[in-house]
Amino acid sequence: MGKLIALEGLDGAGKRTLVDRVVTQLRDRGVTVAVDAFPRYGQSVHADLGSEALRGRHGDLADSVHAMALMWALDRRDAAARLRELLESHDLVLLDRYVASNAAYGAARMHEGGDGEFVGWVTDLEFGRFGATPPELQLLLDVPVALAAERARSRGASDATRELDAYERDSDLQTRTGAVYRELASARWVSPWWVLAADLDPAALALDLAEWM
Ligand SMILES: Nc1ncnc2c1ncn2[C@@H]1O[C@H](COP(=O)(O)OP(=O)(O)O)[C@@H](O)[C@H]1O
Ligand SMILES: Cc1cn([C@H]2C[C@H](O)[C@@H](COP(=O)(O)OP(=O)(O)O)O2)c(=O)[nH]c1=O
């Protein structure tokens, strides 16, 4: 049975880039790694509805913190069986965002902390009611808000499919989300967390992960 690892962080932190680099390094070392990313746009109607709502569609859907979190949670619920299959056939399954994204962004939208009601609601919903597989390790790519925002902005300018959505345009929300992520990490929410710096060397992370396994 493989190990489930989730990479978390702000929009534009560099999660996707880091996943690509670390996976290459791990595969070079002979580790079998499967990669997936949430939201699963184009594969899950719930993910697509959430993304469209963040771009102004579906009336007041995006105004509801709980309705948006439910969309992302239903996406993960639909993916649960496939995730279990991947864990059976790989040493590692590395996810670009998982349940902690829902906890951090939702709590930040509610102006709550990592020990607040919203995080409890997400925990019960996703790990309790929906039976999501808990990650064995969570990685927080802890990049300063301004740097993440700049990266998200320049990516949006060069790629029309990555134009900034409502969460990405809200720098106060990003700041609060970063604070909740750090609280979740220091409280070891669900599993141990490693906090990674912006200038982290992907090869060094791959080495640490190979040793951790
Ligand atoms: N370590 C890095 N140094 C410089 N630019 C980076 C780095 N990591 C990512 N980027 C750039 O920043 C932007 C956002 O990165 P991305 O991996 O898409 O972030 P995320 O998946 O966290 O939203 C991309 O344009 C990417 O090329
Ligand atoms: C997966 C997930 C994402 N989010 C948020 C984080 C992002 O701001 C937003 C969209 O996810 P993101 O991964 O940033 O997608 P995009 O490719 O459109 O940039 O949704 C949650 O609030 N909960 C979740 O469970």
Automatic annotation (TrEMBL):
> Is Thylakoid given among the entry's keywords?
no
Q: Name one GO molecular function term.
A: dTMP kinase activity
Q: What is its EC number?
A: 2.7.4.9
The record lists the catalysed reaction(s) as: dTMP + ATP = dTDP + ADP
Q: Where is the Thymidylate kinase-like domain?
A: 7-186
Q: Which Pfam families match?
A: Thymidylate_kin (PF02223)
UniProt keyword list: ATP-binding, Kinase, Nucleotide biosynthesis, Nucleotide-binding, Transferase
Q: Which domain of life is it from?
A: Bacteria
Specify the signal sequence span: none
Top enzyme category = transferase
Membership in a protein family = Belongs to the thymidylate kinase family.
Entry-linked NCBIfam families: PRK07933.1
| Biological role | Phosphorylation of dTMP to form dTDP in both de novo and salvage pathways of dTTP synthesis.
The name this protein carries in UniProt is: Thymidylate kinase
Could you read off the lineage of the organism from its UniProt record? Bacteria, Bacillati, Actinomycetota, Actinomycetes, Mycobacteriales
Q: Which gene encodes it?
A: tmk
